[in-house]
Predict the structure.
Amino acid sequence: MSPDPPPTAPSRVRPLPARPWIGPLALVTAVFLLHALPPYVGLDPGEARNAVPESAPPYYYPVLVAHIFLGAVALVTACLQVWPRLRVRLPAVHRWSGRIYVLAALPTGIAVLAITPYVQMGPNQQVGNAVAAALWIASTVFGYRAARRRDFTRHREWMVRSFALAFSIVANRIWLMLSMAVFAPEVLTGGRPDLEALRQAVGVSAWMSWVVNLIVAELWLGRIRDRQARAGAAAAAPRRERAGAVSAPAGEGRSSHA
Ligand code: HEM
């Protein structure tokens, strides 16, 4: 493993109009939560969107409910964390909502590991969920630890990955519809799908939801790294020229700028 780079200062934040996705992200999150939470508010297992599996242990439903409500807290605080104005104008609120995000995301991810062995759509779905949850937990821990040692570059990178994994649950709603359309179209037309086709659709959507989000996050981080490298090189060039002019013999300096 390469040694950690020295601590870095938080990067300057661009003005809000350069981040046009903040509003849509908050809206999509609100729509998702308003649709996802109601069946669980009454704490009645009979109301659950997917029936509690018969093979599930007694802890399944309470852990599922904790997963859902803590997951909601994680999504709301993630929206606050990526809101540049809040970060700049109210840094204390940013810090506190960041702590709440970590405290909500970790048990939400751990709950996935506890419930996914019992979900009904087979190993493809179970493994896809478990890998997503493990990566979500790991990236959140790495992001938190980077912030503690004030390495804000690494902190931001790990937290972008963590948020991409958190929002995989929102993306899952879209991937599920697409997978159903491809593998089990009968579901969308009110027919009775084949169980294997249904498992295929749910399994594929379980993987696509987070793999695509992570790819997008990595591409975005790569672009930021390139931009920062170019900005760093552009800032260093005049300094190098000035240093060269000072250290070069007088005649040489004059001829090079002729
Ligand atoms: C990596 C992230 C996540 C994974 C892998 C994951 C996985 C799971 C699993 C395995 C279930 C049980 C599925 C079943 O009942 O058959 C579930 C249910 C649920 N999860 Fe998550 N979850 C994640 C994040 C979240 C977040 C952030 C929320 C936000 C509220 C959330 C909300 C729900 C809801 C509402 C259910 C109930 C079933 C449904 O409506 O689809 N999950 N999740």
Remarks:
- Residues 1-11, 250-258 have pLDDT under 50 and may be disordered.
- The chain has one domain: 16-243.
